[in-house]
From TrEMBL:
Gene3D superfamilies: Glycosidases (3.20.20.80). This is Glycoside hydrolase family 71 protein. Keywords: Hydrolase, Signal. Residues 1-20 form the signal peptide. One of its GO terms (molecular function) is glucan endo-1,3-alpha-glucosidase activity. Pfam families: Glyco_hydro_71. It comes from Zopfia rhizophila CBS 207.26.
């Protein structure tokens, strides 16, 4: 009897912890200034269709105007969709026009309209025995203000706050010294340094180090990074290339408690996976992203998300594939063909490189395969196609160099001589028409 009870207990714990894994997407609320409720509902439905459990609402100071009204609309929309979609706040300590958050404004924000008690906020996932029923609160930076949080947390002691700040500017050891207030760690370290891949050797793997702080880890997954906003002092990129696929595979190794997709709608940094919202694209003089965001859809990065996310929640074991799909992306011309115009690979605090030394001039593509054999063929313009053999059912990722070829891209999954899935993509050119290099990606997808 005892054995059966302990077996059942172990099983329940296993099921609970599997269920407690969640995937959120980072939403820059400031970019949604002109949203109405219907647009929030549409985004929530698109996110849910991709398997995303909730939005992390990035809010800068001051708590007023569009930030306050958009948060209200997001909560109304989420409650209306009423399908267990989650919302929680990321207090942005660097992005607001009112400077860093002060504790009383944080408390006001969490208390106005009782967001912490709101169905969409309060119905949060939780780790058994650790953060049961607590409301997640995150930040973007603000590590100098970590001292504010013990008193903020006492204000919400009946509900309980589960605090997972993003303090990537401080190292894991620093975090260990603040476990009196920090419940878990989220890290913005999710793009490679220079021409490299993200480290996966446990000795140097940042995800291993971050998860090692206390085991409660929200892992960041991002497909891309390119920003050219001189007035914000931001003219740089980090290598994307295969990252979207590699990072998800790494999620299966790291097995974090949560995943946060960066981002849903940050157009200025080119890592949006949500639909392009014209009015959310930075458009001031000296900070205008239209030239690199317009006509560069990223929706195709959501195509395989249901499978990536289901695999993550299934302990890294891929579920059976019922619908074959393709997701593919590339820049529109070789990196060295355009004028970098001051853009560098890497951030100012790293060794910088010319973009063409970091980026690969290749088509990156992932095929979700139902059965073998399957060939994936990729063709640029009228050139002869290159064939790749799927090695397993499930996810198969490849890349194909441009090799100087130009023209529209055709990608197919072919089985026994018949085309099972076919996708097409915008033409690859010899160079940028106006000479200025756009390092954003064009992303497409196709499905059976
Ligand atoms: C959640 O917040 C929204 C927006 O303020 C509100 O319309 C809704 O009634 C709230 N729901 C609950 C259950 O508190």
């Amino acid at each position: 009897m005892l054995r059966i009870v302990s077996f059942l207990l172990a099983l329940t714990t296993l099921l609970n912890s599997a269920n407690a894994q969640r995937v959120f997407a980072h939403v820059i609320v400031g970019n949604n200034g002109a949203y109405d409720k219907a647009q929030w509902i549409s985004d929530i439905r698109l996110a849910q269709a991709a398997g995303i459990d909730g939005f992390v609402l990035n809010i800068g100071t001051p708590w007023a105007g569009t930030i306050e009204s958009q948060v209200s609309l997001a909560f109304q929309a989420s409650n209306e969709v009423a399908n267990e979609f989650k919302l929680f706040f990321s207090f942005d300590y660097e992005g607001g026009t009112g400077g860093p958050w002060n504790p009383s404004d944080v408390i006001t924000t969490l208390q106005v309209k009782h967001y912490v008690e709101n169905y969409s906020y309060a119905k949060h996932p939780y780790t058994p025995f650790q953060n049961t029923g607590k409301a997640i609160v995150s930040t973007f930076e603000g590590s100098d203000h970590v001292g504010d949080w013990s008193s903020i947390k006492t204000q919400f002691s009946s509900r309980g706050i589960y605090f997972i700040p993003e303090y990537t500017s401080k190292d894991p050891n620093w975090h260990r010294g603040h476990l009196d207030v920090i419940d878990g760690v989220f890290s913005w370290n999710m793009w490679p340094d220079g021409p490299n891949d993200m480290p996966t050797d446990p000795a140097t793997d940042p995800d291993v180090a971050w998860k090692g702080v206390n085991g409660q880890y929200m892992m960041g997954v991002s497909p891309w990074f390119f920003t050219d906003l001189p007035n914000y002092g931001k003219r740089r990129l980090w290598r994307g290339d295969d990252l979207w696929h590699q990072r998800w595979e790494h999620v299966y190794d790291i097995k974090p408690q949560f995943v946060q997709i960066v981002t849903w709608n940050d157009f200025g940094e080119s890592h949006y996976v949500g639909p392009i919202w014209n009015q959310g694209i930075p458009n001031q003089d000296g900070a205008n992203a239209h030239w690199y965001v317009d006509n560069m859809p990223h929706d195709g990065w959501r195509a395989l998300l249901p499978h990536y996310i289901a695999t993550y929640k299934n302990g890294g074991v891929e579920p059976v594939v019922t619908t074959e799909k393709l997701s593919y992306w590339y820049r529109l011309y070789p990196a060295a063909s355009g004028n970098a115009n001051g853009v560098v690979c890497n951030a100012p605090w790293q060794t910088t490189y010319p973009p063409s030394q970091c980026l690969q001039d290749e088509i990156f593509f992932t095929a979700l395969i139902k059965s073998l054999p399957a060939t994936i063929s990729v063709q640029i313009g009228g050139n002869s196609p290159t064939n790749f053999q799927a090695t397993k059912t499930g996810l198969n990722h490849f890349s194909q160099p441009f090799n100087g070829q130009t023209g529209a891209v055709t990608i197919k999954i072919v089985r026994n001589g018949a085309v099972a899935v076919q996708g097409t993509g915008i033409a690859i050119l010899l160079g940028p028409p106006d000479g200025r290099a756009n390092y954003n990606a064009w992303v497409g997808s196709a499905s059976a």
